[in-house]
Amino acid sequence: MLIPGLVSVTFRQLTIGEIGELATECGLQAVEWGADVHVPPCDFAAARRALDTGLKVAAYGSYYRAGVTDRAELAEILETAAELDAPLVRVWAGTEGSAECADRGPVVEALHHAAEHAEAMGTRIALEYHRNTLTDTLESAQQLLEEVPGVVPYWQPRGGQDVFSAVHEVRTLEPVTAHVFSWGPGGGKDRLPLAARKDLWRPVLTELARDGVDRNVLLEFVIDDSPEQFRRDAATLLSYIRTS
Predict the structure, then answer these.
(1) d(CA 85, CA 10)
(2) Side-chain half-sphere CA neighbours of 99 within 13 A
(3) What's the sign of the alpha-carbon dihedral 14, 17, 19, 22?
(4) Residue boundaries of the structural domains of the chain
(5) 178: nearest Cα among 203, 200, 148, 208
(6) What is the pLDDT of residues 46-77, one digit of tens each?
(7) Which of 45, 87, 99, 150 is deepest in the core (most CB within 10 A)?
(8) What is the pLDDT of residue 186?
């Protein structure tokens, strides 16, 4: 089943309560709470405010960079995830793309360490699917999942991505979460209404729903960070889910 929601950093300018109200108004069910603004590590009061929204916690969206970030920071991240009862903690696979990375070892070893400690805290490590990391290509992401069996993948499209490769990536990775947005070829500087990529999102969501496994589909990156545009995108997402 596809669980519609949003990534809280979509609206860094809004409070936790305002995000909860907007998501509920739009008929969304879940939030990935970001660690940079809304629920910083060890801010347990903020974590409780997030829980008070009544929305499902899809994940704790950390900015932990495996192999780069000081490992001492991981404990605070996992403690906060536990306070949120977050089933997933999103992390990043280093700071270099697969073509530029001369040695994958430090990232792989740090992810093993993170996955082991996350399991002990009752959560799982999820990898952001993103450029300038070791999940910048499907092949590198697959290799990383084989190197670190305890982690699970996210997925999101590239700017202007073609439908065939997007569906192929989703079918291959079977991600636990998709970040949902529409970008033109210019990437993040070329934001589009979600409906502008109906050609991509209808088949991608159908593929994500194919096996009946619960997966988060979380809105992110709306035009001008506009709540009004978000309302339209949320309605579009829900209409796609109903027919997927």
Answers:
(1) 21
(2) 5
(3) negative
(4) 2-242
(5) 208
(6) 999 999 999 999 999 999 999 999 999 999 99
(7) 87
(8) 86
